[in-house]
Give the backbone structure.
Amino acid sequence: MYLVVGLGNPGREYEKTRHNLGFMVVDQLASSCPVFFKKHRSVSADTADARIRGHRVIFCKPMTFMNKSGEPVAPLAAYFRVPVNRVIVVHDDLDLDFGRVKLAFNRGAGGHNGIRSLIRYLGTEFVRVRVGVGRPPVRVEPHAFVLGRLCPEEADLLPACLDHAAMAVEMIVDKGITEAMNHFNRRG
């Protein structure tokens, strides 16, 4: 079993922001299953029980704000008896061009507050699906940039970006992190 966590912020004002790409990817995966999210009874998260290529997965969208993402995820992993190395976290990343997907395992937070919270509660041995949002323009603070809405060019690229990230999650679940990293992390 896997726990697939999409990072984002709850609330309509954050729905179409760069920081919510994790939510968007997990929503896309859930809609293709198809399953629907419901509020979990004991933690602040929306969850859905699904199958990807025959493997059971629990989709999770923490309903805490980004910097408290670890608070509901750690108890969910314990509740479903999912080992930390089978927790897959999908999140936005400033260090990658918009739409680029890279996979990581057992790494630091890289300045991402949601990842920092997860590390505090889980350690570092979870899988990360990093979805690029690019660097902010000059004189735009990173937090303002990630909380900003997608520009028209990004909105045009969004469907392919979500497809690519969803395929990464599916490959991790079906083939394992090593094969998925070999496929998604190569340049070209």
